[in-house]
Specification:
It is a single chain. With about 80 residues, this protein is an alpha+beta fold. Helices cover about 35% and strands about 30% of the residues. The protein has two helices and three strands. A hairpin with a 2-residue loop joins strand 1 and strand 2. The longest helix is centred in the first third of the chain and has 16 residues.
Length: about 80
């Protein structure tokens, strides 16, 4: 995956977050934190989002195919 492909992929994640209304008040979420997590040896972007209007929190989980083998090995080593 090229850097351009990675950026487009991440941009699509934010498009999904920005187009998902808050379940409580209907406002738009903002991203507070982004982490990489391994779920069944598959890397995921975990986005912690909050509604600035009512404070409702929502977690978004996206598969992260742009994490290469070396980064995946390093992440596994840190998580053990």
């Amino acid at each position: 995956m090229t850097l351009y492909d990675i950026m487009k992929y991440i941009e699509s994640e934010y498009d999904i977050i920005n187009s998902t209304p808050c379940e409580v008040c209907g406002s738009s979420y903002i991203t507070e934190d982004l982490q990489i997590a391994l779920i069944g040896d598959v890397p995921y972007d975990i986005c912690t989002c909050v509604c600035p209007k009512c404070g409702n929190e929502k977690f978004f989980q996206f598969c992260a195919p742009f994490i290469d083998d070396e980064s995946l090995k390093a992440a596994k080593k840190i998580m053990q």
